[in-house]
Amino acid sequence: MPIRSNRLKAEQYEENFRELRPAFDNKEAALVEANRCLFCYDAPCTKSCPTGIDVPKFIKQITTDNIKGSAHTIFEANIFGAGCSRVCPVEKLCEGSCVFNLLHEPPIPIAKLQRYSTEKAIHENWQLFARKDATGKRVAVVGAGPAGLSCAHRLAREGVEVDIYEKENRGGGLMTYGIAAYKVTPQFCEDEVSYICSIGGIRIRYNQELGVTCSLADLQTQYDAVFLGMGVGLARQLEIPGEEATGVVDAIEFIYQLRAKTYNQLPVGDQVIVIGMGMTAIDAATQAKRLGAREVTIVYRRTEAEKPCTDYELDIARLDGCGLVWLAAPKEVVVEGEQVKGLICTKMDLGAADATGRRSPVDTGETFFLEADMIIKAAGQMPFAALMQKELLANASGKLIIHENGQTNYPGVFAGGDCVNGGKEVVDAVQAGKLAAVGIIEYLSGK
Ligand code: SF4
Q1: Whether CATH 3.50.50.60 fits 235-380
Q2: How far is the CA of 39 from the centre of ligand 1 (A)?
Q3: For residue 99, which atom of ligand 1 is closest to its CA?
Q4: What is the pTM of this model?
Q5: Digit-coded pLDDT (tens) for 295-347
Q6: Whole-angstrom distance, CA of residue 140 vs CA of residue 226
């Protein structure tokens, strides 16, 4: 059967793409959960949050119906608190650290409670932070994703004027462009970006790309400081024969397409192979299954113990009926005419551990064939190596090198998020943007 759209009935699409983690549907339900919290003195949940949200404090505020105060506590640490409540891998962060796990009881649903407060703040446009008097300083931020907006918001609070240069025509970065539709909707992403910018002093200039429509030198001339938060670049290529065939697509592109089209318009194969085992791979696989693919197989070159996605994500894929092939690496896309017919994989084994303790896959020389009419590549993204070279930015394999205060090799040019770490969670990018803003404020004040 060829790749085609409109595989299911309208009501089936609605059912398949219903929100995965619905919000509390009434105040009482939120209060019951909030009142279970033990308000631990050394709160392991807070310690495991990369942005350090004071979890017991915001939950306590919910119990006293101080929702504004609760939203303030969350946004003080993480201005993307609403988005993070939907996309954070909480099983390995706050909820995974909740003491209730030790008691073999369900952890406090921290993300759901966080969503309860922050979404109310966004819907009602509560302005929880006052801007300080204008400093007369201007900062250019490259990228309107979680790192860029987090940095911009913190700077705006300090009375700095910020211009964000965004290469796409919408803000939100990976939140908007690379996360499955049953986790965040395009409308939610748009509302969150608008809310963050509503503090004032932040202007987003869309369709502006560093190295194409503007150079770093331009920005250095026009502004008092620059923050680079442009994320990572293009999808990593497999570099195997047949990769250019019709039916081989990039996972981020496939996920984003669903934002631009309705469910029944997005073509999906009948037998789909997804290459990779990160969050994007799982999102692409489950999206393909929910769009009506008969068979979805995820291929990964290591074992389950080394997988980059969480157990929770993998369970979603399993529950959706996706097949899993461990210890297999793509070797060649088999093409007939111009259309994909399948994938030849190499069987792998695990060799010695690298410096991080992670064992590397080794080619056994044996191969096998998987039939497919669509292959989705989710083997990670590559840093903007060419851009780094063009702008003479110090980097390690395309990842920007920064000093303690977030500054790059150019004085006054700071960086953070995926373009530095190579691609981590949204919450890590938010924290990096926040910390860089502190460095920028110090730089602007001449410290
Ligand atoms: Fe509450 Fe669990 Fe955090 Fe303790 S660890 S403060 S119970 S959410």
Answers
A1: yes
A2: 6
A3: 5
A4: 0.90
A5: 999 999 999 999 999 999 999 999 999 999 999 999 999 999 999 999 999 99
A6: 5
